[in-house]
Amino acid sequence: MSTNTDANQGGNGGQPPVKLTRKDFVSDQEVRWCPGCGDYAILAQVQKVMPELGIRRENVVFVSGIGCSSRFPYYMNTYGFHSIHGRAPAVATGIKASNPELSVWVITGDGDALSIGGNHLIHAIRRNLDINIILFNNRIYGLTKGQYSPTSEMGKRTKSTPFGVIDYPLNPLSVALAAEATFVARSVDTHTQHLQMIVQRAMEHKGVSFVEVYQNCNIFNDGAFDMFTARDVKEDRMIELEHGRPLIFGKERNRGIRMRSDMHLEVVELGNGVSESDLIAHNEKAPDSYLAYMLARMEYPEYPVPVGVFRDVQKSTYEDLLTEQVERAIQNMGPGDLEGIINSGDTWVIE
């Protein structure tokens, strides 16, 4: 949902933006996730950012599928749908298409969105609805007690893969970029300030926003991302993307990413003939998604893991195009006549 003045007034039925606080978005439901679950941090950051929308709570809708993350709508004091497995993007599409003024959010997980919900996710993204999709990625099925998911790493032993996973894992950002998402970002549940910034950016984007959040399941996949997200190593093993800035990382800010002549990304040390001008400057506004896709494929330990905004571009939204199409049809053909449509064409009577 865009946060410009026109959008805010539209979301309030023409009224000025309303002033709300985080408490206004906290429901009266007891939050029931496992103690220490990363979902708590994501919920807190979303609740902090929601007042920035400046619109009434009844004009905000959270939609979820099935999984631990899908309890989210109960904990937001807004409208919500706890839908069925993998179908949250389809439900959100119907909501946004029928009432474009609503701020619509899809809360999903790696299992919910990328297995049974894969096609629904891809088509919601490619249509560029003005909705916000937040995918909690813990690389496991938590609600059903620890089976491997579409993002589980090769060789991982789980309750459903006692001899190790033999599926190649999906990369959620690669899927979103391949479907031409206009906003793609990644954050981490424990990096609260960064996560809050990313949610804010997604909210401000006009068009589909896709945010992957590395989320720890401390019961069935504890420490899945600690090797690069832990406080004592993250500066050397993660890189924060900043628009227009060279890709630099490391505690000493002395390492970077450059493009080789064979179009392969490589990690280099600054100095000894290598300067910042040799590094890639991040461009989240690039009309194509080639570089964003390459960055999304960077994985530890060969590369630092990128977080931040990979892509942020503009194009017409599905609901705007739909509204224009309906208005043109009415202008050219007049108001519709349902009874006339039912009784037109090939009709017959059975005696």
Salient structural properties:
about 350 residues, alpha/beta, Rossmann fold, eight-stranded mixed sheet, three-stranded antiparallel sheet, 11 strands, globular
Brief synopsis:
Helices cover 30% and strands 17% of the residues. By secondary structure, the protein is an alpha/beta fold.
Structural description of this entry:
By secondary structure, the chain is of the alpha/beta class. The chain has an 8-stranded mixed beta sheet, with helices on both faces. Strands 8-9-10 form a 3-stranded antiparallel beta sheet. The chain is 30% helix and 17% strand.
Q: Report helical residue fraction.
A: 25-40%
Distance between the termini: 54 Å
Alpha plus pi helix count: 13
Radius of gyration: 22 Å
Q: Label the overall shape.
A: globular
Low-confidence segments: 1-10
Helix and strand arrangement:
Blueprint: H1 5-11, H2 39-49, E1 60-64, H3 72-75, E2 79-82, H4 88-98, E3 103-109, H5 110-116, H6 118-126, E4 131-137, H7 172-178, E5 183-188, H8 192-204, E6 209-214, H9 226-229, H10 234-237, E7 238-241, E8 248-249, E9 255-259, E10 265-269, H11 290-296, E11 305-312, H12 318-333, H13 338-342
Parallel strand pairs: 1-2, 1-3, 3-4, 4-6, 5-6, 7-11
Antiparallel strand pairs: 5-11, 8-9, 9-10
Helix pairs in contact: 2-8, 4-6, 5-6
